[in-house]
Known about the structure:
38% helix
Amino acid sequence: MTPPAHAPAAVTLLRVALPLRTPLRSAHGTExxxxxxxxxxxxxxxxxxxxxxxxxxxxxxxxEWSAGAWSVLHDQLVPEVLAGEEPDVVGHPMAFxxxxxxxxxxxxxxxxxxxxxxxxxxHGRPAPAVARGAVIGRGGPDDVLAAVEARIHDGASxxxxxxxxxxxxxxxxxxxxxxxxxxxLAVDANGTLDARAASLLxxxxxxxxxxxxxxxxxxxxxxxxxxxxxRVALDESVTSVDALRSALALGAAQVVNVKxxxxxxxxxxxxxxxxxxxxGCGVFVGGMLESGIGRAAALALAALxxxxxxxxxxxxxxxLARDVTDPIELDADGRVVxxxxxxxxxxxxxxxxxxxxxDRSTLTA
Length: 365
Ligand code: MG
């Protein structure tokens, strides 16, 4: 029997290592080289699609990590998909997202439809470019102030500082606020805040305080929001629509960070964004230091009108000396341009794959 044209015929997994322009330091560690797993899927009719697994090198942000993602893709998810089965794996949303995005990209290319337009059918007309926030890692005061100035200069409409309760981090927030009283300023604590730090941050008119308490501590995030009048943005806590509904019922989220990687792909992420927006929450698409592949897919989501807070996604040049794709760029107003064209709108360049891929494996149906 001939397989249907849209059936997956072959999947290649590629391990890439992309040097970051500047290491990013946050509560959960420092990233210097971005280790990613790219997925290339070929359908029976020859259509090809790409996806990216954005898990970090070590399991410090969530429990996924790039080597683990490679294993679960290679040994479980890809064989199941090639056998025509529904993937049967608990967890591993970033590995899952890589595979589902590659399949969606291939299918959309086959149909000549852009991902943003596809998502827009259910969620409203996508914008051609999106306002962005700049995420600035932990560091000394001079470095942080210089980074904020540079990002304001190139058009960021929000600046977010990575923080912990350490006095140096909290002093940096006060310094930035003093230097730019009108700046739209936010912080991301990656689950580390205590009441004292929250009370100090409450003095700085922050657009939001991201993930103040650990992922499971929804009551703690709700309490900090209530006690100090903070607008809490949840990131790690929001793993599904159900988790979001619990957070909303408790008053633990006034803003939601949707990341296609954390939520298992752009379609489930769009569903979370829809539920959050309908509940009156602010919504933005967070970043995972993606390559152009993951960044393009996430931008298609960020372009939807349900995402009304500046995205963390920035131009390739802000993070990487060289991207695997043609670079994601800014427009004249400093907004990130959403790639046009079928599927996610970008493909890896062969010369860049040669330079950055250090392992690959192809599985066939
Ligand atoms: Mg975050």
